[in-house]
Amino acid sequence: MGTTPDRILVVDDEEPIREIVSSMLTAGGRYICLQAGSGEEALALLESGEQFALMLSDLMMTGMDGLALLERAKERTPDMPVVMVTAVHDISVALAALRNGAYDYLLKPFEREQLLATVLRALENRRLKMENRAYQTNLESLVEARTQQLNNTMRNLERSYDITLEALGDALDLKDAETEGHSKRVTAFTIAMAKHMGLNDKEIRVIARGAFLHDIGKMAIPDAILRKPGALTPDEIAIMREHCYRGYQMLKKIPFLSEASDIVYAHQEKYDGTGYPRGLKGDQIPLGARIFSVADTLDAITSDRPYRPAQSLPAAREEIKRWSGRQFDPQVVHIFLAMPENIWGDLRKQINSQSYRFASAASKA
Question: Is the pTM here over 0.85, yes or no?
């Protein structure tokens, strides 16, 4: 199958010159030429929707000259190369044409071989530009598709991480049955406060993981201490308090949990510095741990315990307010007290009905 001939627009206000140039170009059957006797006529052809691979225009014409036509043509068909033809042997005129967007220029009189070589170079340049543009477009589409694929993979990976964490939380609940559901509740409460504080999604996901795994270090505490029904001895209390550091050690070496491990390490610190294990104070305590502290106390007060029944939400609010600035960060307390009270009951109902899953809650953060 033969190649479709390229269409060339020949513009000159002298008909004999147009005919000669057109015959030079069409002799080999490689090109099809259309003629225009003025700049205005050529512009009308371009504006009519006619498509040309190249325009060959005289520079000096009555009415609209070649430079004016060049400027208008480039506005409408920027991909079409333009070769200017002139009898004026003045390099400044040729340079002006090149500055205005002409691909090249020919000086009259010229030989057929010179004309064909110039046209061939111009069309090859056009072809390379169009191929490069198509390549760039395809490359951008490929990059966009691969980026979307990578984002989907990362989301699936994040979800698989969170499902794994949920399994760990369930295992901890089985080991420490007294606090069953506690990790999910404090995580839900912590996420709700973090959102109201305006934290971004990445920060909330890290905080959620830290809250959910805050007690993971208890996996390393002997059952005799963890499940002891009576009061712990001072030595047993010391061992129990190791769970913060044990949890930190478990998580810090896992890349996607390294940030969350800091929250686990500090979740028993108090704002006034009287907490453990390091006695951190104020902003030394990670923000996630400061938010968790309020959520943890809220859940502890409003949940049944073997030694007392659950208390009311107003009682929890009052207790948290009373310890603001001592156990709790005052700014976090302010956010907590400003939030609608029904949020906490609604979240608790979701968890109790088993409709709340950590993986979905973390992915929506």
Answer: no
